Amino acid sequence: MTFRKYLVLAGITIFSTAGDSLLARGMKDLGSVSLHNLPGLLLAILNPWVAAGILLLLAFFSCYMSALSWADLTYVLPATSLGYVLVALIAHFSFHEEISPTRWLGIALIAAGVGLVAAGPSATPDHQRQSSQDAPRDAVSVEVKS
Amino acid sequence: MKDVYAWSAIGLIVLASSTGDVLLSYSMKRVGDVGELWKRRGVLPVIGRVLATPTFALGLMAMAVAFYSLLFGLSWGNLSLVVPASASLTFVANAVAARIFLHERVGRRRWIAALLVAGGVVLMAV
After folding, report:
1. How far is CA A119 from CA A5, A97, B105, in A?
2. What is the dihedral of CA A90, A96, A97, A100, to 10 degrees?
3. Helix (H, G, I), strand (E, B) or coil at B46
4. What is this model's ipTM?
5. What phi, psi does A71 have (nearest 5°)?
6. Measuring CA to CA, how many Å separate A70 from each of A30, A58, A62?
7. Helix A48-70 crosses helix A3-30 at what angle (to 10 degrees)?
8. Percentage of chain A lying above the pLDDT 90 cut
9. A96 CA to chain B: closest CA distance, Å?
10. Within the 106-125 window of chain B, which residues sit less than 8 Å (CB to CB) from chain A?
11. Which of A107, B3, B21, B77 is 20 to 30 A (C-alpha) from B69?
12. Min Cα separation B16/chain A (Å)
């Protein structure tokens, strides 16, 4: 894992968190959307908060696709799931949603899972069959190289 | 009643986005290391190569379903419930799907992490 790859993982975390939060802010403006009002759901894009959220989610998607090109899905998802903790914190401080002690414990467990996975290898070595053979995909060998 | 709506949205998000994740991951593994490709050929060939992968479009469609389910879910439930619950359950579903369909080596470390996150999700939904 190079520094640039960790930046991509950080980008996934931050862009998805900020994007989701902006979407939620926009949807609060629009109120409950029902199945009977599908055009209303499509028009949600016109809300500036929703539009900004979508832009950030596009940035997230680029980082996400990049990460999936060199790391396992079962590595990328948990390694970037610190975003859920961020979402809960943003919801707490910006939208004043309640966070109970049990929820705080949940946040701690998720954070522990993130740490555990991020410390392990990022790709299954067998995957070399499908991609560029020159790039070492095992975290240990990358460390030795750089 | 609102909870039932929120949890059905969560279920739909989990199904659609884990399908999408597996398809997108499969596509990107076929494309190869995007960073290396960018350095050698520039950004346009990278985008072209990604778009030319058929499973990528399928993955995008699944993600679009997941995205609109998320919009529904967010209008019905709390941000700090819908987002963590759906996304982390997706992570657990993905660990199983990645092992079966992508043949990823999901070792003890990744399973424990899966259980930790799954436990965290349950606690956050209480």
Report:
1. 14, 32, 15
2. 90
3. helix
4. 0.79
5. -140, 160
6. 39, 19, 13
7. 150
8. 21
9. 11
10. 106-107, 109-110, 112-117, 119-125
11. A107
12. 15
